[in-house]
Amino acid sequence: PAAPDPGCPDGPHEAGPGAERPARMVELPVGASEDRLVGSLDIEKALAEGVKAFEPGLLADAHRGILYVDEVNLLSDHLIDHLLDAAAMGSSYVEREGVSVRHAARFLLVGTMNPEEGELRPQLLDRFGLTVEVAASREPEQRVEVVRRRLAFEDDPAAFAARWTGEESALRERIVAARALLPQVVLGDAVLLQIAATCAAFEVDGMRADIVMARTATALAAWAGRTEVTSEDVRQAALLALPHRRRRSPFDAPGLDEDKLDETLERFRGEDPDPDPEPDGPGDGGPD
Predict the structure, then answer these.
(1) How does 195-212 read in b/e, with b if 16+ C-beta sit within 10 Å?
(2) From the CB of residue 67, how many other CB atoms can be counted at a distance below 10 Å?
(3) Global pTM?
(4) Distance from first CA to last CA of the chain, Å, rounded?
(5) Cis omega (within 30 of 0) on the bond before 4?
(6) pLDDT by 10s per residue, the chain, length 288
């Protein structure tokens, strides 16, 4: 990059043009140790050279990439604490045997889970910006197609991947175009009011939901090739960002009340917040 991060675990970087590499996808096993996550003392170098050196962990490997956790609801509490610290600060601080290291750890956290096996701690649940519920189809034709594709992949993975190369390339190009358009997307005051009203209506805690909804609605507009966020973008963002954040009792059904959502969006459609009054200045007819 043009301005290298001094805390980057891949550094230090020399001055000059940067080099591109694919973003890493790092998987965090449920049974991983604390040293595997945050890093540990490099025993090999200590024995061979007699020096204390730090061996980076998975948090360093996932910097500027994706950290994926399967069965995230089964993750140990001490690992969750480290994830929360890294997600909040964008860095990881490690002390091992007299070695103190601080490095950048900014990553996209992706987790999958089966809710029937246990819930996530609220602190970690709030760190996931968006949620998607995936359920097996009840349509026989779709289930047959899933099995057919799975068997085709097992028979010849290379041929299966080549079959979908065209569609994946088109999807990749659309993502690149949306990312290029993103800085030009305008998030108007009326849309921001709808976002704030929606979060208030569903009684979500804190302000993270508002920020996530604003970013998601902006990304959806760019994905659609538009430079202005609409109410439909806000609606889709709410369906992704709010279901896991709203207050509900243990016996409430998961998801979001879409009728309440539509009512809130319609109520605040097209209403801009009142502009701040101009401060009094000299010559405005006010008292001396």
Answers:
(1) bbbbbebbebeeeebbeb
(2) 24
(3) 0.78
(4) 56
(5) no
(6) 556 666 666 566 666 666 777 888 999 998 888 888 888 777 666 667 666 677 788 998 998 899 999 998 888 888 888 888 888 888 888 877 667 778 888 899 999 998 888 888 877 888 888 999 888 889 999 999 999 999 999 999 999 999 999 999 999 999 999 999 999 999 999 999 999 999 999 988 889 999 999 999 999 999 999 999 999 999 999 999 998 887 666 556 667 888 999 999 999 886 444 444 444 544 454 444
**Can you list the domains of the chain with their CATH numbers?**
25-125 (3.40.50.300), 143-180 (no CATH), 183-267 (1.10.8.80)
**Residue tagged active-site, from 36, 96, 106, 208:** 208
What is the DSSP track for 81-112? HHHHHHHHHSEEEEEETTEEEEEE---EEEEE
Task: Note whether 67 and 109 are within 8 A (CB).
Answer: yes
Active site residue 208: yes
